[in-house]
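Meet the record:
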Amino acid sequence: MARPAAPGFSCAECGWTGAKWFGRCPECQAWGSIVERGAPTTSVAPASVPAARAAKPITAHVVDDATHRPTGIGEFDRVLGGGLVPGAAVLVSGEPGVGKSTLLLEVAARVARRGARVLYVSGEESAGQVRLRAERTGALDDELYLASETDLATVLGHVDAVRPGLLVIDSVQTIASAQSDGAPGQPAQVREVAGTLIRVAKERGIPLLLVGHVTKDGSIAGPRVLEHLVDVVLSFDGDRQTALRFVRALKNRFGPTDEAGCFEMTGDGIAEVPDPSGLFLSRSATPVAGTCVTVALEGRRALPVEVQALVVGTSAPNPRRVVSGVDGARVAMLLAVLEKRCRLTQLAQSDVYVSTVGGIRLAEPAADLAIALAIASAVKDTPLPRTLAAIGEISLAGEVRPVAGGRQRSAEGARLGYRTIIDAEVGSLQTAESLAFSAPGLERVEAPAF
């Protein structure tokens, strides 16, 4: 006689299987995702397809309903690819207090002023709190409807009553459905709430904006399937110590994912910054030792960023390495290259401080050359020319390597008045160093095309 199959459990997020139930998946660390498997299933019989929903050739489908509709905020539309698409689900994630609710309230008000009815559902604040913020930021309009609800069925009732042209949910982790067990914010609840709202939005052609929380490591809270359900995933981030904010597209079914929108938090709300070229440069009129300008890429936009370095001698056995806005491991590697290839031996007995101006974070290797030149300038106490910009990645062999978007970076530097651009054409770090500390009236070095 065949032995009956042993009961088993599997994770709905990553597919892990085991013989015991756990509250937290041992593989992907997701809570509440372990379900029993092996239950008998019934076969699904084919269903008749109505004539209106019959499959048609792709050339027979109409694309007028899938065009972008601008929201009135140029930087937000830039990241979306031109605006909101009817029936599209957009997930906006970011850390607490970064300004997600302020941004979406401004988007809702701009869309309402264009004649479309907007429903803003807040599960985190009361209607009075949202009204006070709207008064402060000037986001009041008669076509902007506001509700404070945490029950999914009630939210759907508001949608039926208002019939909005745009639906904003702040946030998806605060809404709960009676059809699913668990507290709001748990994977099962987030999956049920998001799936229902997205289905209603697509059936009625309503653009849907969802606010999503993030975890300690910066990933979007809830099940991974949430990012697969939505059409667009936007990341809204920025340094809390500065007023600058960036919106980046991590996923976009209707446009590019290499765009970035720039905003500034003010006392009157959030304002878009169409040209942030001068936000990351110091205001000093005279050259200062330990500073160098690079050209970074934020999406398709080239931005000049000033890197500052300070080198101070110390008698401590372990010199300090303090960085802000740059990768600490990358700076440690550059210090080793400078000490070995350029004979800057005093770095081993000095405290080194490296920072960016304006609070922007440089994560790309294209800033290596500017960081190295700023450190060398601080060591020699010799300022670099203010008309110089450095672009390039530095290898462990002291080679200056080319980076992506070299032509675009050089063109932006030339537009802003940088007559000397040092990049991969110089070949080595020693050549770049000697070129940077020579006379300011040098012939401009062009970056290669990639």
